[in-house]
Amino acid sequence: MGLGGGSEVACRVPAAVVGLAPPRKMDFLRRAFAETRLRYHVSKVIFAESASTGKLSRECLSLVEEHPLVVLSVLREHLHTGSPHAYAYLHLLEKIVDACSFSFHAAMSADHALHEKLVKLAVARAEGGERRKVRRLARLTLLEYSRMFVDVPELQSLAKLAGLVEKVTGKSLMRALAVESKKVAFVDPRPEDIILISPVEVPVKAVPSPQRTSTAWSCHICTYVNRPQATTCVVCRTPKTTRAASPPVHKSKAGNSVSAAEILSGTVCHEKSSAGATTPRAPTGEGARVPSPIRSGKGNEAKGETLAKRGAPAAENQA
Protein backbone atom coordinates (compact mmCIF):
# COMPACT_ATOMS: atom_id res chain seq x y z
CA MET A 1 0.00 0.00 0.00
CA GLY A 2 1.28 3.46 -0.87
CA LEU A 3 1.22 6.49 1.35
CA GLY A 4 -1.78 7.95 -0.45
CA GLY A 5 -3.84 4.85 0.13
CA GLY A 6 -3.45 3.56 -3.46
CA SER A 7 -2.23 0.09 -4.41
CA GLU A 8 1.02 -0.69 -6.16
CA VAL A 9 1.29 -3.78 -8.40
CA ALA A 10 4.81 -5.14 -8.87
CA CYS A 11 5.37 -6.73 -12.29
CA ARG A 12 8.35 -9.04 -12.58
CA VAL A 13 9.98 -8.82 -16.03
CA PRO A 14 12.04 -11.82 -17.27
CA ALA A 15 15.80 -11.33 -17.26
CA ALA A 16 15.98 -11.98 -21.01
CA VAL A 17 13.72 -8.98 -21.66
CA VAL A 18 15.57 -6.47 -19.49
CA GLY A 19 18.39 -5.80 -21.94
CA LEU A 20 16.26 -5.81 -25.11
CA ALA A 21 15.16 -2.83 -27.12
CA PRO A 22 11.48 -1.82 -27.01
CA PRO A 23 10.57 -3.53 -30.35
CA ARG A 24 12.28 -6.76 -29.27
CA LYS A 25 10.52 -6.67 -25.93
CA MET A 26 7.18 -6.49 -27.64
CA ASP A 27 8.04 -9.40 -29.93
CA PHE A 28 9.07 -11.56 -26.97
CA LEU A 29 5.90 -10.74 -25.08
CA ARG A 30 3.79 -11.49 -28.15
CA ARG A 31 5.47 -14.89 -28.60
CA ALA A 32 5.12 -15.74 -24.92
CA PHE A 33 1.46 -14.77 -24.97
CA ALA A 34 0.85 -16.75 -28.17
CA GLU A 35 2.50 -19.85 -26.74
CA THR A 36 0.49 -19.58 -23.53
CA ARG A 37 -2.74 -19.17 -25.48
CA LEU A 38 -1.87 -22.09 -27.75
CA ARG A 39 -1.07 -24.31 -24.81
CA TYR A 40 -4.32 -23.40 -23.12
CA HIS A 41 -6.25 -24.18 -26.31
CA VAL A 42 -4.48 -27.51 -26.76
CA SER A 43 -5.16 -28.44 -23.13
CA LYS A 44 -8.83 -27.64 -23.60
CA VAL A 45 -9.12 -29.72 -26.77
CA ILE A 46 -7.15 -32.64 -25.33
CA PHE A 47 -9.27 -32.70 -22.19
CA ALA A 48 -12.45 -32.79 -24.29
CA GLU A 49 -11.07 -35.61 -26.43
CA SER A 50 -10.04 -37.63 -23.36
CA ALA A 51 -13.63 -37.67 -22.19
CA SER A 52 -14.93 -38.68 -25.63
CA THR A 53 -15.25 -42.32 -26.66
CA GLY A 54 -15.56 -41.74 -30.40
CA LYS A 55 -13.02 -40.88 -33.07
CA LEU A 56 -10.68 -37.92 -32.83
CA SER A 57 -12.00 -34.62 -34.10
CA ARG A 58 -10.45 -32.76 -37.02
CA GLU A 59 -9.33 -29.96 -34.73
CA CYS A 60 -7.48 -32.41 -32.50
CA LEU A 61 -5.77 -34.08 -35.47
CA SER A 62 -4.70 -30.71 -36.90
CA LEU A 63 -3.21 -29.67 -33.57
CA VAL A 64 -1.34 -32.98 -33.32
CA GLU A 65 0.14 -32.56 -36.81
CA GLU A 66 1.03 -28.87 -36.42
CA HIS A 67 2.13 -28.79 -32.76
CA PRO A 68 3.24 -32.30 -31.70
CA LEU A 69 5.58 -31.04 -28.97
CA VAL A 70 2.84 -29.01 -27.28
CA VAL A 71 0.43 -31.95 -27.44
CA LEU A 72 3.02 -34.29 -25.93
CA SER A 73 3.76 -31.78 -23.18
CA VAL A 74 0.07 -31.61 -22.24
CA LEU A 75 -0.31 -35.39 -22.27
CA ARG A 76 2.87 -35.88 -20.24
CA GLU A 77 1.56 -33.77 -17.35
CA HIS A 78 -1.24 -36.26 -16.64
CA LEU A 79 0.66 -39.52 -17.17
CA HIS A 80 1.59 -40.37 -13.58
CA THR A 81 0.18 -42.76 -10.98
CA GLY A 82 -1.36 -40.04 -8.83
CA SER A 83 -3.41 -38.46 -11.62
CA PRO A 84 -7.13 -39.32 -11.68
CA HIS A 85 -7.15 -38.90 -15.49
CA ALA A 86 -4.12 -41.09 -16.21
CA TYR A 87 -6.16 -43.87 -17.82
CA ALA A 88 -8.11 -41.47 -20.06
CA TYR A 89 -5.00 -39.62 -21.28
CA LEU A 90 -3.12 -42.88 -21.83
CA HIS A 91 -6.01 -44.19 -23.91
CA LEU A 92 -6.07 -40.90 -25.85
CA LEU A 93 -2.34 -41.22 -26.56
CA GLU A 94 -2.97 -44.66 -28.02
CA LYS A 95 -5.64 -43.29 -30.37
CA ILE A 96 -3.40 -40.39 -31.44
CA VAL A 97 -0.51 -42.76 -32.25
CA ASP A 98 -2.82 -44.87 -34.43
CA ALA A 99 -4.25 -41.85 -36.29
CA CYS A 100 -1.29 -39.48 -36.67
CA SER A 101 1.60 -39.40 -39.13
CA PHE A 102 5.32 -40.08 -38.80
CA SER A 103 6.07 -36.55 -37.52
CA PHE A 104 4.28 -37.23 -34.26
CA HIS A 105 6.03 -40.61 -33.92
CA ALA A 106 9.40 -38.92 -34.37
CA ALA A 107 8.52 -36.36 -31.70
CA MET A 108 7.55 -39.20 -29.33
CA SER A 109 10.81 -41.00 -30.02
CA ALA A 110 12.81 -37.92 -28.98
CA ASP A 111 10.73 -37.21 -25.85
CA HIS A 112 12.69 -39.08 -23.14
CA ALA A 113 10.56 -37.59 -20.37
CA LEU A 114 7.51 -39.28 -21.91
CA HIS A 115 9.41 -42.59 -22.05
CA GLU A 116 10.16 -42.35 -18.34
CA LYS A 117 6.51 -41.65 -17.55
CA LEU A 118 5.30 -44.67 -19.53
CA VAL A 119 7.83 -47.01 -17.92
CA LYS A 120 6.88 -45.84 -14.43
CA LEU A 121 3.21 -46.49 -15.16
CA ALA A 122 4.04 -50.00 -16.39
CA VAL A 123 6.15 -51.00 -13.38
CA ALA A 124 4.27 -49.13 -10.64
CA ARG A 125 2.71 -51.08 -7.78
CA ALA A 126 -1.02 -51.20 -8.41
CA GLU A 127 -3.29 -50.90 -5.38
CA GLY A 128 -6.92 -50.74 -6.36
CA GLY A 129 -8.89 -51.39 -9.50
CA GLU A 130 -8.16 -48.04 -11.18
CA ARG A 131 -4.41 -48.29 -10.80
CA ARG A 132 -4.45 -51.86 -12.07
CA LYS A 133 -6.28 -50.68 -15.19
CA VAL A 134 -3.69 -47.94 -15.77
CA ARG A 135 -0.78 -50.34 -15.33
CA ARG A 136 -2.31 -52.92 -17.66
CA LEU A 137 -2.99 -50.31 -20.36
CA ALA A 138 0.57 -48.96 -20.04
CA ARG A 139 2.00 -52.46 -20.48
CA LEU A 140 -0.22 -53.13 -23.49
CA THR A 141 0.84 -49.79 -25.00
CA LEU A 142 4.55 -50.53 -24.65
CA LEU A 143 4.07 -54.04 -26.00
CA GLU A 144 2.29 -52.58 -29.03
CA TYR A 145 5.11 -50.07 -29.56
CA SER A 146 7.65 -52.91 -29.56
CA ARG A 147 5.76 -54.51 -32.47
CA MET A 148 4.91 -51.35 -34.42
CA PHE A 149 8.32 -49.65 -34.42
CA VAL A 150 10.71 -52.61 -34.34
CA ASP A 151 11.54 -52.25 -38.06
CA VAL A 152 11.90 -48.44 -38.06
CA PRO A 153 15.47 -47.36 -37.18
CA GLU A 154 14.40 -43.83 -36.21
CA LEU A 155 11.87 -45.15 -33.67
CA GLN A 156 13.98 -47.78 -31.91
CA SER A 157 13.77 -45.88 -28.61
CA LEU A 158 10.02 -46.59 -28.52
CA ALA A 159 10.47 -50.25 -29.49
CA LYS A 160 12.92 -50.84 -26.62
CA LEU A 161 10.60 -49.62 -23.85
CA ALA A 162 8.99 -53.05 -23.42
CA GLY A 163 12.40 -54.65 -22.92
CA LEU A 164 13.25 -51.98 -20.36
CA VAL A 165 10.12 -52.86 -18.37
CA GLU A 166 11.04 -56.56 -18.43
CA LYS A 167 14.54 -55.70 -17.22
CA VAL A 168 13.20 -53.67 -14.29
CA THR A 169 10.54 -56.19 -13.21
CA GLY A 170 12.49 -59.34 -14.08
CA LYS A 171 9.36 -60.87 -15.64
CA SER A 172 8.11 -61.42 -19.15
CA LEU A 173 5.67 -58.72 -20.22
CA MET A 174 3.46 -61.22 -22.05
CA ARG A 175 3.26 -63.50 -19.03
CA ALA A 176 2.54 -60.57 -16.70
CA LEU A 177 -0.38 -59.55 -18.89
CA ALA A 178 -1.67 -63.14 -19.00
CA VAL A 179 -1.54 -63.41 -15.21
CA GLU A 180 -3.37 -60.10 -14.79
CA SER A 181 -6.20 -61.29 -17.04
CA LYS A 182 -7.01 -64.22 -14.77
CA LYS A 183 -9.86 -63.66 -12.35
CA VAL A 184 -10.96 -65.43 -9.18
CA ALA A 185 -14.69 -65.85 -8.63
CA PHE A 186 -16.31 -66.38 -5.24
CA VAL A 187 -19.16 -68.89 -5.25
CA ASP A 188 -21.99 -68.79 -2.72
CA PRO A 189 -21.93 -71.72 -0.28
CA ARG A 190 -24.17 -74.65 -1.13
CA PRO A 191 -26.30 -76.49 1.46
CA GLU A 192 -23.96 -79.48 1.42
CA ASP A 193 -21.01 -77.19 2.15
CA ILE A 194 -22.46 -76.13 5.52
CA ILE A 195 -21.27 -78.19 8.49
CA LEU A 196 -23.38 -77.89 11.64
CA ILE A 197 -21.35 -77.60 14.84
CA SER A 198 -23.00 -78.37 18.17
CA PRO A 199 -22.62 -75.64 20.82
CA VAL A 200 -22.25 -78.33 23.49
CA GLU A 201 -18.70 -79.56 23.81
CA VAL A 202 -18.60 -83.36 23.67
CA PRO A 203 -15.33 -85.13 24.52
CA VAL A 204 -14.13 -87.25 21.68
CA LYS A 205 -13.43 -90.82 22.68
CA ALA A 206 -9.90 -91.92 22.14
CA VAL A 207 -9.73 -94.19 19.15
CA PRO A 208 -7.96 -97.39 20.15
CA SER A 209 -4.73 -97.62 18.28
CA PRO A 210 -4.36 -100.83 16.29
CA GLN A 211 -2.24 -103.32 18.11
CA ARG A 212 1.15 -103.72 16.68
CA THR A 213 1.71 -107.07 15.04
CA SER A 214 4.05 -109.27 17.03
CA THR A 215 7.52 -109.69 15.65
CA ALA A 216 10.26 -112.21 16.15
CA TRP A 217 11.90 -112.06 19.55
CA SER A 218 15.46 -112.71 20.61
CA CYS A 219 16.35 -114.99 23.49
CA HIS A 220 18.21 -113.18 26.24
CA ILE A 221 20.23 -116.28 27.08
CA CYS A 222 21.51 -117.59 23.75
CA THR A 223 20.42 -114.64 21.53
CA TYR A 224 18.61 -116.97 19.13
CA VAL A 225 15.85 -115.26 17.15
CA ASN A 226 12.60 -117.18 17.62
CA ARG A 227 9.30 -117.00 15.80
CA PRO A 228 6.62 -114.64 17.13
CA GLN A 229 4.30 -117.46 18.25
CA ALA A 230 7.03 -119.32 20.14
CA THR A 231 6.71 -119.13 23.93
CA THR A 232 10.08 -120.72 24.71
CA CYS A 233 13.43 -120.57 23.02
CA VAL A 234 13.94 -123.43 20.57
CA VAL A 235 17.63 -123.85 21.42
CA CYS A 236 17.90 -123.44 25.18
CA ARG A 237 14.19 -123.82 26.10
CA THR A 238 14.22 -120.52 28.02
CA PRO A 239 10.74 -119.03 28.53
CA LYS A 240 9.93 -115.86 26.63
CA THR A 241 10.45 -113.04 29.12
CA THR A 242 11.64 -109.48 28.97
CA ARG A 243 15.31 -108.97 29.68
CA ALA A 244 15.96 -107.65 33.16
CA ALA A 245 17.90 -104.46 33.71
CA SER A 246 20.71 -106.37 35.46
CA PRO A 247 20.75 -110.07 34.50
CA PRO A 248 21.29 -112.40 37.49
CA VAL A 249 24.39 -114.51 37.90
CA HIS A 250 23.81 -118.13 36.89
CA LYS A 251 25.38 -121.07 38.63
CA SER A 252 26.40 -124.34 37.10
CA LYS A 253 25.70 -127.72 38.62
CA ALA A 254 29.28 -127.92 39.88
CA GLY A 255 28.67 -124.82 42.00
CA ASN A 256 30.84 -122.48 39.96
CA SER A 257 29.15 -119.16 39.20
CA VAL A 258 28.93 -118.05 35.57
CA SER A 259 28.70 -114.35 34.81
CA ALA A 260 25.92 -113.01 32.60
CA ALA A 261 28.48 -111.46 30.25
CA GLU A 262 29.87 -114.94 29.44
CA ILE A 263 26.38 -116.25 28.82
CA LEU A 264 25.36 -113.36 26.54
CA SER A 265 28.62 -113.48 24.58
CA GLY A 266 28.18 -117.20 23.94
CA THR A 267 31.31 -118.27 25.80
CA VAL A 268 29.38 -120.64 28.01
CA CYS A 269 26.30 -122.18 26.39
CA HIS A 270 26.29 -125.53 28.14
CA GLU A 271 27.68 -127.10 31.25
CA LYS A 272 31.39 -127.86 31.23
CA SER A 273 30.75 -131.40 32.32
CA SER A 274 29.88 -133.64 29.40
CA ALA A 275 27.89 -135.89 31.69
CA GLY A 276 25.34 -133.18 32.40
CA ALA A 277 25.03 -132.01 28.79
CA THR A 278 21.53 -132.27 27.41
CA THR A 279 20.90 -133.97 24.14
CA PRO A 280 20.11 -131.42 21.38
CA ARG A 281 16.50 -131.56 20.36
CA ALA A 282 15.23 -132.06 16.87
CA PRO A 283 13.82 -129.03 15.06
CA THR A 284 10.17 -128.32 15.76
CA GLY A 285 7.58 -126.18 14.04
CA GLU A 286 8.33 -123.24 16.31
CA GLY A 287 11.67 -122.40 14.73
CA ALA A 288 14.80 -123.76 13.14
CA ARG A 289 17.36 -125.33 15.45
CA VAL A 290 20.89 -124.01 15.48
CA PRO A 291 23.25 -126.98 15.93
CA SER A 292 25.62 -126.61 18.84
CA PRO A 293 29.29 -127.38 18.29
CA ILE A 294 30.37 -130.93 19.23
CA ARG A 295 33.14 -130.87 21.80
CA SER A 296 35.93 -133.38 21.85
CA GLY A 297 35.78 -135.94 24.60
CA LYS A 298 34.73 -139.40 25.45
CA GLY A 299 31.30 -140.36 24.22
CA ASN A 300 30.87 -137.36 21.95
CA GLU A 301 31.32 -139.40 18.75
CA ALA A 302 28.13 -141.33 19.42
CA LYS A 303 26.25 -138.15 20.16
CA GLY A 304 27.47 -136.67 16.86
CA GLU A 305 26.09 -139.63 14.95
CA THR A 306 22.78 -139.29 16.77
CA LEU A 307 22.54 -135.60 15.85
CA ALA A 308 23.29 -136.37 12.22
CA LYS A 309 20.54 -139.03 12.10
CA ARG A 310 17.99 -136.72 13.70
CA GLY A 311 18.87 -133.78 11.47
CA ALA A 312 18.58 -135.78 8.23
CA PRO A 313 14.73 -136.06 8.19
CA ALA A 314 14.37 -132.35 8.92
CA ALA A 315 16.68 -131.47 6.03
CA GLU A 316 14.66 -133.69 3.68
CA ASN A 317 11.40 -132.04 4.76
CA GLN A 318 12.83 -128.57 4.20
CA ALA A 319 14.08 -129.56 0.75
TrEMBL record:
Note the Pfam families from the entry.
Zn_ribbon_RanBP
Instruction: Alphabetically list the UniProt keywords.
Output: Metal-binding, Zinc, Zinc-finger
Q: Name one GO molecular function term.
A: zinc ion binding
UniProt domain RanBP2-type: residue ranges: 212-242
Q: Where is the composition biased (Basic and acidic residues)?
A: 298-308
**Which residue ranges does the record annotate as region Disordered?**
270-319
Q: SMART domains under this entry?
A: ZnF_RBZ
State the signal peptide span.
none
Q: What is this protein called?
A: RanBP2-type domain-containing protein
Q: Which organism is it from?
A: Trypanosoma conorhini
The beginning of the lineage is: Eukaryota, Discoba, Euglenozoa, Kinetoplastea, Metakinetoplastina
